[in-house]
């Protein structure tokens, strides 16, 4: 018989994790909302993706294709990859979690970086392994700090490249140097959620390295530049042996049919992706100097968001700025949980949202 004083107890490491606090999405009544808190696409989803999703709504009684064949073929065609080496997930979050589930457990260690995407640490801890944090340098992943923390218990390393919430990237020479120095039994997971936004000659998302080694996986998402965050679609590109392993723990119908249809159309709509990248690049070049001119510090970004650091004068801090901007309908993201207590992350939004946010920031700094 169940006792009134005993209940199921989770592992202590799970209880010690911070609860994920999502980006806010409400403005005061009567104020126009500009949600710049979750790195969603300023241009939304392509019309082709929306039409494909609507069409899929007519057949909701059918199970989806558990192998995601059409989507894997479309991704393969777009990037020149063998679809056999692609595995789709319910968001790239699921891909990242499935890798931890398959490769980590009690007595092992997984490495994440100082300002990492919070899911990296959560996935390590949920697997039962120990999470080891590698410090970053100037809000940039530090390959030597990662290598210094590798032990005989290390089995997996997560790196977001570019990083979130930093917006910075690691040149691919550095990633190659990391892979070359890692023991062969350590899986290097390159989370490239923002790869499509990057315009740098020394950046690569990781496709070549996956193809030429046995211990590298790249993950990608449809949530950012493709504008399909609501539908939850991500994918990984991995060597045969990793795909075979992850297939054993993947839920058989992890993506729904509406999501599969929309993503298959989205990846083929290259013009829409190009428009989103151009919109972003133009605003990145504009916003960074404009915000800097207000007396704020912006971490140089290659993504669809900027990390804004506020003064320590007790009057113009991130908490005060957040309240000021929220009251005017501009919802940015507090990033204390990522190790930046006095910064806000601003997603690059529509023209009107970006102009309005800069004007509100100027008003705030002039107070
Ligand atoms: C947004 C984001 C993802 C994408 O997550 P989904 O589950 O695909 O929506 C993955 N990694 C990083 C670093 C991100 O910022």
From TrEMBL:
Lineage: superkingdom: Bacteria
For this UniProt entry, the molecular function terms from Gene Ontology, in alphabetical order, are: histidinol-phosphate transaminase activity; pyridoxal phosphate binding
Q: Where is the Aminotransferase class I/classII large domain?
A: 35-361
Cofactor list:
pyridoxal 5'-phosphate
* HAMAP family, per the entry: HisC_aminotrans_2
Task: Indicate the family of this protein.
Answer: Belongs to the class-II pyridoxal-phosphate-dependent aminotransferase family. Histidinol-phosphate aminotransferase subfamily.
The entry's protein name is Histidinol-phosphate aminotransferase
């Amino acid at each position: 018989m169940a006792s009134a004083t005993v209940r199921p107890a989770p592992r202590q490491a799970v209880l010690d994790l911070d609860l994920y606090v999502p980006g806010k999405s409400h403005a005061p009544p009567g104020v126009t909302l500009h949600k710049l808190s979750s790195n969603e696409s300023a241009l939304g989803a392509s019309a082709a993706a929306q039409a494909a999703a609507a069409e899929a709504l007519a057949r909701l009684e059918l199970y989806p294709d558990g192998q995601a064949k059409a989507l894997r073929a479309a991704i393969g065609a777009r990037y020149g990859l063998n679809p056999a080496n692609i595995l789709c997930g319910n968001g790239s979050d699921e891909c990242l979690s499935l890798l931890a589930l398959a490769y980590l457990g009690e007595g092992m260690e997984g490495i994440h970086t100082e300002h990492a995407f919070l899911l990296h640490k959560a996935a390590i801890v949920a697997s039962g392994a120990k999470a080891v944090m590698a410090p970053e340098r100037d809000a940039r992943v530090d390959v030597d700090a990662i290598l210094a923390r590798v032990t005989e218990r290390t089995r997996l390393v997560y790196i977001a490249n570019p990083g979130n919430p930093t917006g910075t990237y690691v040149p691919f020479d550095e990633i190659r140097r990391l892979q070359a120095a890692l023991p062969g039994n350590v899986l290097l997971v390159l989370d490239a959620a923002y790869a499509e936004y990057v315009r740098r000659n020394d950046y690569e998302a990781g496709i070549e390295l996956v193809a030429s080694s046995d211990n590298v996986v790249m993950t990608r998402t449809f949530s950012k530049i493709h504008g399909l965050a609501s539908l939850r679609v991500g994918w990984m590109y991995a060597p045969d042996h990793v795909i075979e392993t992850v297939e054993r723990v993947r839920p058989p119908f992890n993506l729904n049919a509406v999501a599969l249809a929309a993503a298959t159309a989205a990846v083929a709509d290259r013009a829409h992706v190009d428009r989103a990248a151009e919109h972003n690049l133009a605003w990145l070049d504009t916003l960074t100097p404009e915000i800097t001119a207000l007396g704020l510090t912006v971490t140089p970004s290659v993504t669809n968001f900027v990390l804004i650091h506020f003064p320590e004068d007790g009057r113009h801090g991130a908490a005060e700025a957040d309240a000021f901007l929220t009251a005017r309908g501009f919802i940015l993201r507090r990033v204390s949980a990522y190790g930046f207590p006095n910064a806000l992350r601003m997603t690059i939004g529509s023209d009107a949202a970006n102009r309005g946010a800069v004007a509100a920031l100027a008003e705030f700094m002039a107070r």
